[in-house]
Amino acid sequence: MLLSANLFNKLTAVISGIFIGRWVEPADYGIWVALNILPSYVYWMQLGTANGLGRELPLTIGKGDTDAAKAYVSTALNFHLVVVISSVVVLPVISHIFKNVESVKWSHGLWFIAFYIATSIITGLFYIIARSYRNFKSLSALLVVNSTIAIAGLWFVKHYGLYGLYYRMFLTQLFLMVGYIIFYGKYIDFNFKLKTDKLKELVKIGFPIFLAGYIAILFSIADRSLAARYLSAEMLGIYGFALFVYSGVQIFSTTICDVLFPEMVIEYGKRQNVDILWKIVKKYFIYHIIILPIPITVIWFTIPSFLKLVAPRYVLAAEPAQILLLGCVEWSFTGILGNFLNTVGKSWSNTLCLGLCTVIFWIGCYVSIKSDYGLNGLAWANVLSVGVYFISSLFVVLSIMSSKRVTV
């Protein structure tokens, strides 16, 4: 049920993106894209406490240790309130990185993105609490209603453009915050006491997990960050829409990876046999090689006409979007390979592969911009760096299989 709700959220995001492209000017959309990068630069302050809570809370609940569970939740919440205050304080300083998009609209947007950062840090904790207590039905309903509100909020976008995006974000975040408090506030024994022993445990457990995830975030924002730094808001908006098309195509493969990961963990836990996992990986590869190229080819050829019909302001996004689509298959493969490495306890190997890919991507984007290769250069940097991630992670997986003397 929760997986269906998440898939529904992704699909509504795609639908929303189409209308946003029709109603919002590229320069305004560029401001919106830049604003949405800012949370990524402050989330590191959490130091993995949310990840640690996601690991420890289900374990303590499973043991029936209610007091320890409440202590973990209370500690995480208190620490995250400190993170909220710190994030809002440093936000104006960080925002000056993107000097090319600064304007009155940008300044107004900072207030809304500050609200988003503050609420998303807290709602992220509530999501972990709801999932840990296995309240999937109410959690799924909350997410679906929130996505429905986001669709209804497109009315604001149609009538107010960029400011409509601000109002829509404010409403959805406010609804989530209130909904989480109503449904899951009962699990929180709130006080202002920060238990340092519990905090140290959460950081110790969660930081390695967080580090891998944060490297993935750094990869995802490289092209947009450098575009916001050195290109105009209009160019950033056009490139942001190309990324929107690309991410829409990725929904299929990322959803399959989300489904397969628990299956891989269960199978490996039962038999401790990597050969079983490799069979799942090969089956995934075969299905994607046969199926995925068909919709990608169709989309590749229809993107220019689609943009002219639906979002004519963004016709310049067609070519970078087509380039990005070339990396869809290899990116889908990296997901399942990452699942394999995480399942067999080689998450650090996956982190190193992703880290190498991220460094190459940042360098590639910078060189592309400074060499005047434009948006197409950013797209090619994305494709090539993902290729490095795929090749390096495949090499590690094959090395593991070889060491286990398994026929591949």
How would you state the average pLDDT, rounded?
Answer: 83
Beta percentage is under 5%
* Class inferred from helices and paired strands: mainly alpha
What is the overall silhouette?
Answer: globular
Q: Give the H and E element order.
A: HHHHHHHHHHHHHHHH
Helix percent reads: over 70%
Give the strand tally: 0
- Low-pLDDT runs: none
| Integer count of domains | 2
**Biggest pleated-sheet summary:** none
- What is the terminal-to-terminal distance? 35 Å
Rg over CA atoms, rounded to whole Å, is 22 Å
Tally of DSSP helical segments: 16
Write the layout of secondary structure elements.
Blueprint: H1 2-23, H2 26-35, H3 49-63, H4 66-95, H5 104-132, H6 136-152, H7 154-160, H8 162-184, H9 196-230, H10 233-271, H11 274-291, H12 293-310, H13 318-325, H14 328-343, H15 347-370, H16 374-403
Helix pairs in contact: 1-6, 1-7, 1-10, 2-5, 2-10, 3-4, 3-5, 3-9, 4-5, 4-9, 5-8, 6-8, 7-8, 9-15, 10-11, 10-13, 10-14, 11-14, 12-13, 13-16, 14-15, 14-16, 15-16
Tell me about this structure:
By secondary structure, this protein is an all-alpha fold. The protein has 2 domains: 2-209, no CATH class; 231-403, no CATH class. 84% of the residues lie in helices and 0% in strands. It is built from 16 helices and no strands. The chain has helices at residues 2-23, 26-35, 49-63, 66-95, 104-132, 136-152, 154-160, 162-184, 196-230, 233-271, 274-291, 293-310, 318-325, 328-343, 347-370, 374-403. Helix 1 runs parallel beside helix 6, helix 4 packs parallel to helix 9 and helix 15 (347-370) packs antiparallel against helix 16. The longest helix has 39 residues, at 233-271. The protein is globular, with a radius of gyration of 22 Å.
